[in-house]
Design goal:
Layout (H helix, E strand, L loop, with lengths): L1 H8 L8 E5 L7 E2 L5 E5 L3 H12 L10 H9 L5 E6 L21 E8 L4 E7 L2
Parallel strand pairs: 1-3
Antiparallel strand pairs: 2-3, 4-6, 5-6
Length: 128
């Protein structure tokens, strides 16, 4: 996600908070305008989440990213909520979001649906 977003986000990305990027490429922290910093974490999802929780203090931690990161977080029980945004376009490639979960089924409770011609937004609470 970072590789695709870095250029369009420009010098002042929309996050205005520390961002921890799970990657296989070690890089120096990248500081941007508006309070966004990108820290590149090569030690896996658990390490990235620990750093994000420390940075957030009492605040929430959001996970955004590709299917692999979402799968790892879901499988490990780290997500309280899940938002999926569906655009009516089939591209025929990529990684399936829910393919590699393994283990027990994960229950989802629908919280919100927002539908428009361009995108459908689904929000779920992850069952304990």
């Amino acid at each position: 996600m970072f590789d695709l977003g870095e250029s369009p986000w420009g010098d002042e990305p929309p996050f205005h908070a520390p961002v921890f990027v799970v990657t296989h490429e070690a890089r120096e922290t990248l500081d941007k305008q508006g309070g966004t910093s990108f820290t590149f974490v090569t030690e896996g999802i658990e390490n990235a989440l620990a750093q994000a929780r420390a940075a957030a203090g009492d605040g929430d931690v959001s996970v955004a990213g590709g299917a692999s990161v979402v799968q790892q977080c879901l499988a490990a029980g780290h997500l309280d909520e899940l938002q999926v945004h569906i655009v009516p376009l089939l591209i025929g490639g990529g990684v399936r979001l829910f393919e590699q979960l393994g283990g027990d089924p994960i229950g989802l409770e629908r919280i919100r649906v927002v539908d428009s011609p361009a995108v459908t937004h689904l929000k779920f609470r992850v069952a304990p």
